[in-house]
Amino acid sequence: MLRAIYPGSFDPVTLGHLDVIKRSCKIVDELIIGVLNNSAKTPLFSVEERVKMLEEATKGLKNVKIVPFEGLLVEFARRMKAKVVVRGLRAITDFEYELQMSQTNHKLEPEVETMFLTTSIEYSFLSSTTVKEVAAFGGDISQFVPSAIIGRIEEKMQSKIKRRV
Ligand code: PNS
Fold first, then answer.
1. For the chain, what are the domain ranges?
2. Is the pTM of this model over 0.90?
3. pLDDT tens, position by position, 128-142
4. How far is the CA of 150 from the centre of ligand 1 (A)?
């Protein structure tokens, strides 16, 4: 049985993430989406909100589980009994960071391998940061995020704007 972890911040989940999730699901028996809860970072969405959005976006995918985690990824992988970490590669600009991360993880835990999937071309420009930027200025994000979570993102942006005035 091959269990893999797809870790990330998912602030929020995009169609690019969902594409990697769906393709990974066909390769592995079980995919655990690890949602990083990092107190040093200040994400737009709380970890509970990010988990909820992922649950809504992955409804219907049978072999997916969403689990928040704190601390080292390799420790989380060990706890989950996962031997593979999945990461998406969009462009050469992602490569240096991803290489460093996978090699660090491999030094820390040689039993865990990182598997890279290249992002589908239509999502190669897409990031959670882009989505937040477009949404903050009232742009249309329907091409960028799963339809199930559009309302949540728009609501969050509205409440941010209201807090500022
Ligand atoms: O979606 P992101 O923000 O690119 O995901 C980054 C993530 C969560 C995979 C990475 O920050 C991570 O694994 N953090 C946990 C801490 C850790 O294990 N660091 C050591 C590897 S350099």
1. 3-164
2. yes
3. 999 999 999 999 999
4. 25
